[in-house]
Amino acid sequence: SESVKQKIQEMIRGEDTAKPYSDQHISERLAADEDIDIARRTVAKYRELLGILPSSKRKNVSANAT
Prior knowledge:
The chain has helices at 2-13, 23-34, 40-49, 55-58. It is mainly alpha-helical and 66 residues long. Helix 2 packs across helix 3 (40-49).
């Protein structure tokens, strides 16, 4: 589970702050890219354990400002 947490953290670190990944998207990418079958709610649990906010709170509105 530690390696999965690390992959989630890396994925979120590399995301576009204007369009942060949802827990569902992270779950689907882990399944497709890493062949890791993980439920959305497990992604949410790991994200919370890592101290990472939900996607709606990570969204950087100023990135969209023109």
